[in-house]
């Protein structure tokens, strides 16, 4: 009887695993198709919008900058949608599930854990806006560099005839240096935001362990004691919620960087 039940359970697990694999492949296919169709529409709409501009727009804009928008900026704008839609939905579901389980385990510890969410959200939001402006500057500088490269390569005979290779290189390096400096600033901001958020996460975890331990000691003689097992269970659920929330904040940061490319 036990052996038959065990065999049935293993077969059920195999069936569920097969279904998970099948649905996973369908999910990957759907998101890949959505991402590629989105990139297709964005590039076509962008090219159509450029062609509809007034002639004065083309007098002020260079060919290299416009082709840079069609190639780099469009790709940077749709890249998060192609790669992160699936992870966003999965982490959102994990966050809601872990949140519910945390409340069911201990509402007191849950309210204590949520005190760190608002500061983390504020820090992430401030960095995301700042990073969006910096990434807009990065893509603008790279577009100018692409303009210089297009002009130099398109008139390479003139460049060689007047021996202006050094000057063209200096112009190109000037724009790429601007992009590099903005990128370094973005890296510094990302490191600072990570340090603050990590400190808040660790502080919240230590606060939960301390308060949970106090609950275990205080309710040891109660009719419904808060046991060590419940504390460990809550910690596991909290870690799950924390990981999902961190992944979602990373997605938000990626989308704000994509917004920096879209603003051009």
Automatic annotation (TrEMBL):
It comes from the Eukaryota. Its main location: membrane. It is a multi-pass membrane protein. Keywords: ATP-binding, Membrane, Nucleotide-binding, Transmembrane, Transmembrane helix, Transport. One of its GO terms (cellular component) is mitochondrial inner membrane. InterPro entries: ABC1_TM_dom, ABC1_TM_sf, Type_1_exporter. The keyword ATP-binding applies. This is ABC transmembrane type-1 domain-containing protein. It comes from Pyramimonas obovata.
